Amino acid sequence: MKQIIARLESLGFAWWGILILLLALLPLYMSETYVSLFSEILIMALFAMSLNILIGYLGMISFGHAGYFGLGAYSTAILMTKTSISWILAMASAPVVAALGGVVFGFFCVRLTRIYFAMLTFALAQIIYTIAFQWESLTGGDNGIVGVTFPDFLYETNNAYYFILIIVSVCAFFLFLIVNSPFGSTLRAIRENPERAEFVGIKIKAFQLIGFIVAAVFAGIAGALFTFYNGSIFPDYLLWTRSTEALIMCILGGMFFFSGPAVGALVVQWLGTVLSRHTIYWPFILGLTLLLLVLFLRGGIVGFLTEGYSKIKARYHL
Amino acid sequence: MIVSSIIMPILTGLTTAMLIFLVASGLTLIFGSLKILNFAHGVFYMLGAYFSFQVVSTFAASPAGFWIGLIVAPLGVAIVGGLIEFFIIRRAYKREHIDQLLLTYSLVLIIGDVTRFLWGVEYKSMSRPEGLDATISVFGAPLASYYLLILFLAPTIALGLHLMLKKTKIGWMIRAATFNYEMASALGINVPRLFLVIFMVGSWLGGLGGALYAPLGSIVYFMHTQVLLESFLVMVIGGVGSFWGAFVGAILFGLLNSFGFQYFPQFSMFFAFVLMAVILVIRPWGLLGQPEG
Amino acid sequence: MLLNVESLCKSFGGVTAVMDVSLSVEKGDLRSIIGPNGAGKTTLFNLLTGHISVDSGNIYFKDRKITKLQPHSIARIGIGRSFQRISIFPRLSVFENVHVGILSRERKSYKMLWPARRMVRTETLEILEAIGLAHQAGNLAATLPHGDQKRLELGITLALGPELLLLDEPTAGMSPEERFSIIELIGNLVKERGLTLLFTEHDMDIVFSISERVTVLHQGKVIAEGSPDEIRTNPEVQSVYLGEAEWETTLT
Question: What CATH number does the domain located at A2-315 have?
Answer without folding.
Answer: 1.10.3470
